[in-house]
Design a protein that fits this description.
Protein name: GST N-terminal domain-containing protein
Strand order of the largest sheet: 1-2
Structural class: mainly alpha
Low-confidence stretches: none
Bound molecules: glutathione
Number of helices: 5
Domain GST N-terminal: 1-71
Strand content: under 5%
Shape: flat
InterPro entries: Glutathione_S-Trfase_N, Thioredoxin-like_sf
Mean pLDDT: 88
Helix content: 40-55%
Largest sheet: 2 strands, antiparallel
Number of strands: 2
Family: Belongs to the GST superfamily.
């Protein structure tokens, strides 16, 4: 989502939230749950329109509709059906494969508090799949 914002003619400020239920700073805290009741980042609030969104795909599509109305910046390479499919397939790959695998890999590597053999095997498998995904992109 960060790169979507950077690509568009819009000024944005970002805020970092932390894991946990700290009422002021946590993604499961009261302040953040007003923005995203699912308690996860990314989320966005657009003061220009009052729109609030979460889920990276929904946020990116909103930003495209709101700030790239003519489809000049974030769009398929051309006007053919193949161009549209190429755009869609990379977007879906990002949302359904690369994003989730990378997220799980980060969780198991850096945040999971209890390591055991099953978790380590799962991590290696996820890590491998995420790396293959990144290499292929
Ligand atoms: N499918 C969601 C995934 C969101 C997600 O899992 N975000 C993680 C960080 S990458 C998070 O906020 N985790 C905090 C938690 O689950 O407590 C999206 O694409 O936005």
């Amino acid at each position: 989502m960060r790169y979507t914002v950077l690509a568009l003619p819009v000024t944005a400020t970002s805020r970092t939230w932390e894991f946990g239920d700290n009422p002021e700073k946590g993604v499961k805290g009261a302040k953040f749950l007003v923005i995203n009741e699912n308690g996860r980042v990314p989320a966005l609030e657009d003061p220009n329109t009052g729109v609030v969104s979460w889920e990276s795909g929904a946020c990116m599509n909103y930003l495209r509709r709101a700030y790239d109305k003519d489809g000049r910046i974030l769009r398929p390479r051309g006007d053919s059906e193949q161009d549209r499919v190429d755009f869609d397939k990379w977007e879906y790959f990002l949302l359904t494969t690369l994003g989730p695998m990378t997220g799980q890999t980060n969780w198991y590597r850096h945040y999971n508090g209890f390591a055991n053999e099953g978790v380590l095997i799962a991590m290696q498998s996820k890590h491998g799949a995420a790396m293959v995904s990144w290499r292929g992109s």
